[in-house]
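Researcher: Following up on the earlier apo prediction. This time include the ligand. It's magnesium ion, with the SMILES given after the sequence.
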Amino acid sequence: MTGPRWTTGVEAAAIRARYPAAFEGTRERIAAAAIVATMLALAGLAVWRLDVSFARLGTGLVQIAAIVGGMFPPTPGTHLAVFMHALGETLAIAFLGTLTGALIALPLGLLAAKTIVPNVFAHFAVRRVLDTIRGVDVLIWALIFINVVGLGPFAGILAIAASDTGSFGKLFSEAIENADRKPVDGVLSTGGSALHAIRWGLVPQVVPVIASQILYYFESNTRSATIIGIVGAGGIGLHLAEQIRVLEWGQVAFLVLLILVTVAIIDLVSSRLRFAIIGRSTVEVG
Amino acid sequence: MTANALRLPPEQAAHLLGHYRAGVAAKRRRLVLGMVVLAIAVVLAGIGGEVDIPKFLANSHRLPAYVWNLAPPLSWANLGNDIAEWFWNFDGWLLLLGDTLLIAYLGTLLGVGGAFVLCFAASANLERRPWIRFVARRLLEFCRTVPELVFALLFVMAFGLGALPGFLALAIHTMGALGKLFAEVVENIDMKPVEGTIAAGAGRLVSIRFAVLPQVLSNFASYALLRFEINVRSAAVMGFVGAGGIGSDLMVAIRKFYYTDVSAMLIMIIATVMVIDLLTEQLRHRLIGLGDRT
Amino acid sequence: MLVVEGLTRRFGTLKAVSDASFVIEPGAFVGVIGPSGAGKSTLLRMINRLVDPSEGVIRFGNENVTALTGRDLRRWRRRAAMIFQQFNLVGRLDVLTNVLMGRVATVPAWRSLTGLWPEDDKVVALSALEQFDIGSLAAKRAEHLSGGQQQRVAIARAMVQEPELILADEPIASLDPRNTRVVMDALLRINRHFGITVLCNLHSLEIARSYCDRLIGMAAGRVVFDGAPVQLTDALARDIYGLDSEQVLDGSARAPEPRVRAGAFGEAAVA
Amino acid sequence: MLVVEGLTRRFGTLKAVSDASFVIEPGAFVGVIGPSGAGKSTLLRMINRLVDPSEGVIRFGNENVTALTGRDLRRWRRRAAMIFQQFNLVGRLDVLTNVLMGRVATVPAWRSLTGLWPEDDKVVALSALEQFDIGSLAAKRAEHLSGGQQQRVAIARAMVQEPELILADEPIASLDPRNTRVVMDALLRINRHFGITVLCNLHSLEIARSYCDRLIGMAAGRVVFDGAPVQLTDALARDIYGLDSEQVLDGSARAPEPRVRAGAFGEAAVA
Amino acid sequence: QDYKASYPELVFAKVPDENASGTTDRWTPFVDYLSRQLGVKVTLRIANDYAAVVEGQRAGNIHIAMYGPASYARAYVTGAKIEPFAIEVSGDGTKGYYSVLYVKADTPYKDLKDLAGKNLCLVDPNSTSGNNVPRYAMNKMGIDPETFFSKIVYAGSHENAVIGVQQGTCDAAFNWWNDEKESNLLRMARKNMAKAEDFRIIFKSDLIVNSPMAYLTTLPESLKAALRNAVLNVATNDPAAFNAIYEGKQLPFVAVTHKEYEPVVELIKFVDELRKKKRAS
Ligand SMILES: Nc1ncnc2c1ncn2[C@@H]1O[C@H](COP(=O)(O)OP(=O)(O)OP(=O)(O)O)[C@@H](O)[C@H]1O
Ligand SMILES: Nc1ncnc2c1ncn2[C@@H]1O[C@H](COP(=O)(O)OP(=O)(O)OP(=O)(O)O)[C@@H](O)[C@H]1O
Ligand SMILES: [Mg+2]
Ligand SMILES: [Mg+2]
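Model: Understood. Below is the ligand-bound prediction.
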């Protein structure tokens, strides 16, 4: 039951003659194929060079079963209070560290966005600074701040803030570049300054993206052991690493579950917050 | 001038203003409440996190202390030799960097694939059935919450030592992390083009391909490349599965306090990060058409 | 035959469309008129199932449109082409691909997904663009077009769908007189020639009167008029639009001596 | 006095506006007409300096608009209010805040940046909305409005700017007859009453003729007509729009017996 | 007591043990005890990475630290101004543990020399018992591991090294070993990750001297004396605190000087030499 083909009268040959470009497109297709081929070739090279083999799969599965079996039932052992305390501590550190990093990164992100700072040099310089911040390992950030404030949660907050600044700056700048230009033009056209255009034309658009990135990093910092453990602030990640090291699988499972619940809660808050900002709109996609 | 002329009589204005206030009151209240909660959280976290600003300021002159140590002894007279001395293991590190890039590439590729498949099921604007969304979101959380080390250990048992367990662990984590970020990018798109395609009878795949992808591809690309960069730097898993790589060598150098090695490797890693970032930028600007706007 | 029964849509407390009922015979050219915010767009979007009705049913032939899901829903949408008030193009894709979107339901999935469109469909899409004088823009990004050009791309997309029903939401709002004619004539032709039903939101009463067989007038969500254009007296129309009786109806009619009517702006509010 | 001299804008190889020159006296109500894609929007955007001219100068009074930067540019934009064809509202903000955007240049920065608008400005913004019957929508998100409602918000924003010049890009495209009148009357009033210059892109020749003191016709980027509405003969207008001589000009005029003219769609292309 | 004014707060840092969990639980009573004895606040910091502890001592904001032997030596070599004053004593009265080489029980290898051309698993480049001591020992035997073995694999962890042997990735692997009752292999066996009977030891290193506790040399003498007194007598003054740490498996701390760590320092220097050798080649 399709509609009538009202297009049957169309003269294909004439159209083709008038718009030859629309029927070529071979160059793009070759380019696309070349990109895919290169990616596959690289993957092949990697597999070969890294000597990847699936040979031992069979025997190992038994041992996996042993470990996974050891994870049941998950149990806090005798450390429940310690774990909960560590979780709280971790949340506090991750929260402040992420927030501080985001606050520092915001102006940097604006400077690194091509749509805001068209000056190539400024833009280039800021982006390279951000690259450098990201390139420096978290362990090094930790050591730098241990020199200043000693071991402890404060050093963890600073190290997280520093290392996240690099990622945030990059992500924020890209969110900003991706924003729709029309509202920004709307604000500018009334005589608004660049600040106004950012505050009213840009921020409402990018806030959901930025909020989700901040919450994601908060979550990620909560579960990652690295910085908080290194700087001697304890934290849930330290306990997790410890339990893995001493092969206490039941407690590992318990800690993972604990973190999973925390992460799910953060995820829930994140969704709520973002949908409050962007408004929910769904259509039934067939 | 004009504005005054169009001013409404006071009662009518007051009425409208009241109407407006009532309309935004709930939102206002939520905003204020949110701010208060945030402020309380900051204070509490500040206490819990033993934040000590005066101490930080008093000791801030020590900020460059560690970095200072990293500087190699360079002299003008002997610059070439000094640099050669500094990068004494350049070849070896380059090889390690290459291996790391390959592992990270494989891990990222697999992870991005998985994330790409799952993200649409996890986003509320394209997936109406809440249970599918719930399952997808929890699955992604599981993948990024179970520590890479646990996955790595399990895979070592299954596949033996080597790169394979390393990049599988990376891939799973990458999938969990990117899946969430991708889903949120998708939730943030303009739905008008999607309506446009489905109104033409397009199915899910086609509307994703033509109405969603053009909007999200640049973000996907940049997230994926950022994750690639993170995977290049992530030393822990690689070292753990015995796959080495530049990250674990850097760790060793930091722990053994081979300062000049640390700075040499850092420079190489930072250069790599810069190259990846430049590539990302090129790709993104192409995708969002920034290049041809000017 | 399109049957709409007791159709209602709420947004929060607001009833954007409220208990609308009408029947549209196959092959009719029906205009929907009414003041801004009357619910015209919402009505059309419900028929295409982009907005779910809060109450009421829509039937087309034997089919209960309101109950469709999945593949059936897609098939229905293919049959009921929609032209959006805000165009709803994919700004970052080129014009031709935007038009080819109208063919997705008929092209095999592997072809459309890889962008390897059949030559035939490209010909159809290009000829549709050419109908509206924008064949030469086929390779341009949609977001770089002028307003009127975008609108014509959106119309071309609906045309190549070869639908049985066209839902056009102010298809000529951004068009100049010539293109207004071109587009309305095109709609009229496929309506007359192929018996395709057209349901068209229009702001210009003149256009509505000259092209439509029948007009449906909406105000504040309700259907307040339903009849042939001749039945729509000026008094009735003024009622629909909430105009005072001394005001003429069509904006296009001479403005009554503008130079003289320059009163204080404040008065306009209650005019 | 607005002076435009040799204004040109290229997009790639395309000249969207090409060597446009004209002078507009203070207090004039000038309509810009021309087919879709003629460069009307680009012209207005250049005057507001949202698009930089490739060549040519724009002067207003003693000021060289093309050379302005920074604070001066912002001051100029405040004086030259722009109404966009696609509204350019911030969809996620409420309607009142969108209108208050028109006041950013006059409100202290700390207030405008924190959103603590003075009561007075809110009253002004609400009054402007009420002029267009949408005062009650002030708290709604702009993206939830109907097309015509959004357009009126955009106009209200321009009004509260207290500009010296209004650049309106098809301000009535999405409006019903009543609102078309309301908006055009409002423009006319502030033009007559306060001597504010209005430069207005219009698609409807009828409206242009009845409201404007003077018309500028554009086609393919060039200014092809410049004179009083009476000077624009039908023949000239047909020329601008590229219509054949037997075609009537205004879309709103009766369509020549639609039922009879039902030719094959393919023929429409060359109609 | 003069130090209280200038040192109102002392920081005690600890790297988590290789072979026990609950580091915080176990050390908190001890730190509380120190605090009571010294009359100043003592804060316990557990850092996951000993580089952080070394850096903190170099910067002077960690006053007392419990090191592993190698990490103490590393801190010393790196120029931290510290001196050891107390050492752990194992249950049998020895002051150390060993690095051992495992092979599969059903293989013919009797001795390290039999492994020529085979694959060897080391733990990671930073491990004392899993890398540094084995290399040092082999060097003394005149074996150059890079040429002697066909392949050297860094397994990444002690467990992975055992798994490597079990799965045949390597023919032999180094690991830590305390005594007949405690070793990494036994621990894995208790968790069903390996069977102890499947493995055989064919080499045992010299004693690796136990972990020291070290303070900053810049601390005032009175404070140092008070610290020594408190730590060396903890087992008698506060048995509960002491037992919380070692659960009765270890004997009380005894005094120690840097001299006992000279061999470990030598080991560290040897490891640094290795790196330079790599450059030469
Ligand atoms: N950013 C851009 N990039 C490339 N081409 C553009 C861009 N903006 C406009 N154009 C082109 O410039 C020409 C003039 O566009 P403009 O928007 O000024 O037309 P218009 O007269 O306003 O038309 P309409 O009545 O349809 O709105 C069109 O052909 C359009 O495709
Ligand atoms: N998503 C939404 N959320 C809340 N209210 C909405 C939404 N969409 C539409 N509305 C409201 O519903 C009413 C009808 O809107 P609709 O777009 O159908 O009007 P319309 O008749 O098409 O008007 P116009 O001629 O101005 O386009 C309006 O008052 C509008 O504000
Ligand atoms: Mg509408
Ligand atoms: Mg335009």
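Model: Chain B has two domains: 9-53, 89-287.
Researcher: Noted. I'll compare it with the apo version next.
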